[in-house]
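[Q] Does anyone have a clean structure-token version of this?
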Amino acid sequence: MKEVENVNDNLNNFFNQDIEGDAEVNEELNNLQDQLNNEPEQQNQAAPNQEHIDLNQLFRQGARRANQRQVAELRRRQQQERERQAAERRQQESNAEAVRNLYRQGRNEMVEKADQGYKPITDFYALDNDFPIPDGLSREVISAAVIGALMDRTLLQDLVPDMIKEAGSIENLQKYFVTEVFSNGQIDGRLNPVFNTALNRVSAAINDYANGRQNKIKGYLEAYATYTASSVGNMGVSAGLSSDALTPEQKSYQFCKEFVIDGPLRVEPKVTYYTDINEKKLTSYSKQLDSLKAAERSKQRLINDVGRLTRQEKEEIVGEMLLDSIIANMGSIQQKQHQEAVQKNRENTFRNIGLTEADDNWNRYTQNQNNIFSQKAEEASYIINNNTISEFDVLMSVPYGRDALKAAYMDKIKQSDIYRNIVNSENPKTMIDNLMIADHETQKGINALSGIEIPAQFKEMAKTINAGCRPELETQLTKLNAEMADLAMGHHNANDPFWADQEEFNDFSRDSVLEKAKLIDDLYQMVKKNDTLNGSRNYGDMKRALKELRDYTKALAMDDRPIGGEERVDYTKLVNKVNKLADHYLMNKDNLDKPSSLQKVAGVRKMKKVLLSTLHNIEWAENITENKITEEFFGDKFKLHDSLDPSNDSNKAFYGDKYRDRQSRAIHGVPCNKFSTTRSAGTSIAIMALAATGKYSFEDLMDPRFYREEKQAMYDEVIQTLKNGDDPANREKVARWIHDGRKVTDGMLDEQVKKTDFKNVDIYHDKQFTMLLHMYKARFDVEQEMFHIREDYIKIAKQADPNFRTMNDAKVLWTPMMEIAQSMERLKKATITASTSRTPTTVKTATSEVIGNTEIIRRNLEIMDQKKQMSMNTHVNDWFNEADHAQMGFVTGSLPSALAPKLGIIESNPQYVKPLLPKMLDGSFMKKTKYEPDFAHGKLVVTEGFPAEETIRIEAENQSFLKKTDEAIKRLELGKDMYTSKKEFVRDSAYAIFGQMYRAAGNKTPVDANTGKRLSLEEFMEKQLSLGVFEKSLKSKKNPKAFTNPENIAKMAKNKTRINKIIKSNAIKNREHLAKKSNKKMVQNKTVQNRTVQSI
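[A] Here you go.
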């Protein structure tokens, strides 16, 4: 039994192991067979009992037969395994041979591409073969010009703005022309208008060139060169083991360098994009492509001629091939490093405002692709590319760069195993195998072999260049990163705890400014506390800038006026200055995680987040305050005007959703880029175009509620027609819209003007009058814009009137109505500026605009009414001639500037403006003023009636006093609990009583009884208080030692009858005082006379 168990154990061991070779298996089988063969002898030597021997024998015989079957099965399986391994070896060899063939084919294809040169580019982009090419140009230069014309940013912005959005950026769409187009030989059908326009432009440019004008073709070449220079840093040369390199896209960079920058016309990119760095990168890239071509040719020769090359020839070829392969692969390595730098900047953008990997939105902000944050990261890629350069690119940019690398490291290359293995290859099979190993290793670039480094001189050159560009790099990245943070603030989840403490301006009121001033002071105290005696200079610079911001906001908070546009700009500049210095500190700190720096770094990051959040929607906050100021001084005076304004951004009658963004309305390319469509030109032309159809009434055109779909469709057609202004037919179309629309609207204007009541005191709420203003504004617009297409307009006008010769025959319309519309807009803007500006000269200028435009509106309404009375039977267009236009236009243009010199007191005391604004706006300030033009000296002269400086001072102080009067009455009404001292109560009582007396007396200025000098209410009150009489009058009649209750003073101040009695009593006392004074003076005069007589 034990022998059987041993046999079974041996079989189990065999079946449980892998069959690795025939010798080992045969040995095991032989041992098993020997065991079986020895069993009879063991049987004969068994126990002497025959019956027992027979049983054992039978058992052994059965076991032997079983073992024999197992051996047979084992041998069968052994044979199957041999056959399987043989088949696997054949398959592996077949696969390896297929790979070798593919590799050989890849090398042949690469060499074929290299031999093709730039044929794929010229085949697609050059004009027809029969197109005449002037001397000095070539098919290559013309192809480059077509590419440049396609890449014209203005053309793409005009014709395919949706594709720019789809691509993520204009640079991505430009790249399309050197990726999909070059590689596939076809373009997206939506780009056909761009392609056709580009071909037409280049054809015209070639004709110009033939006639001695090079500007146009150079402009297209410059566009191509600019794209090439700005994007080359994102390109890699070698594709490693594949044959996907040497694509037309890659060759286009070298093509541009050869035929544009270094070509016959020597056109360089725009200076902004062609820095020293871009030039070096482009040169390096071209040389890397040369190395790739050379390496592929060498590999092809080594494979094809392996049996014919001498060892010496192989050694020379292999050394050069490995050097070229290392050079060709460096671009891809640098591209990976560049992408890592871009990703690091993206992460640091959010890390440096306090976000961490633990926050829920970390991946959304820093990792996710195809969102607004990845698009911003792509912008960062261009910034980093344009402002940094590698040591390798510096090396390859010099003429002897490759030779320097070869001289330094060829010996190391020849000492390497990959070099020896290739040289020792004796047939194509081993040669290809060793080349593939070499390709894999050289993908590491100069790191493929130990001991290879960039020579020190080039490292130093790169360090110097990068140091010089570092400030600009930081400036651009800081700006971009702030934009990225602002996007996060605007796109965060409302419940995201990270943004819970976002500090936006709600408006620009004093309360908001006070709040931000305290906030910034707290930040400064934190930053100051975190500083150390040996703190870095960068930290100190940031702290000083923060103090400057703190002091500025503190000064703003001390002024009770709201802040405006000027202050927003200054505040934004200071915040950006602090943020830039904070980034400078963070970007240049060696170890942000150093324990001793953690508190400092955390404080800086908190400060950045808070300050940047105050800039989020800051323009919206400014608009809120502007609206409040407008409502304070104008009420709803401008609401109807704004609601009916066709060009108002919030008015979707024409814009719809498609053109909500102003930039979507912009015309970028010549010849129509001068049309001011980002303002009101587009809507004005659309109004003319709709009017020209004859389908719409005046109200249909001007009321935003009517025909919105038709208005939006027409506006879209206007914008698209202007964007395709290259086509003469489109320019003529615009000219016809304007020409025919002017004729139709002439009749509408005549009818509406004659129906308008210009004496209406509530004219600003007259819908017909307001729509009339807007139509005049539209006419003014189109009659300015039509001069941008004068030749086309003349052509259209001649069709209607053969006598039309020049634009002088267009008879541009002028009427005071146009000036009323313009003055209304200027008036509102000037009022906001005068109310908020802290710059004295700006306040004075704005004040003169307020007074002047108020008078212009009043005067022009009066003129329109007079003309209407006299000229009802005359067409409104003939109411005013050129002389009228010249004289009235002169007054309009000169009045504000003529008033400014008389407002010196406003410049010295800007605080006087706000209390005087109501009188300036209702016209009473200028009521007695007269002025007349002095044409001889080209100015307007104020002849009489303008308030003197002393009058302005007193009136301003009086208006401020009245504001204090109202505030004092409110406090008095709340009772004695409002007061902590006698002085406060007495002053409030004085403000209440004297202010109400002034109002009851018809706003008559107090006069000093002794000097006869006019006093402001503030001066009058101070004088009365100094005498002590007023204080005594506040004593209680019941208890002369106590003051009367504050509520009683408030009631008395609001009681007109009691105030009038006080005025009357005061007047009697003043008369008695003046009489006594007069008698005393008469006695004094008589005494003097007597003494004089006696003396004589």
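[Q] Thanks! Anything notable?
[A] Residues 360 and 940 are 67 Å apart (CA to CA).
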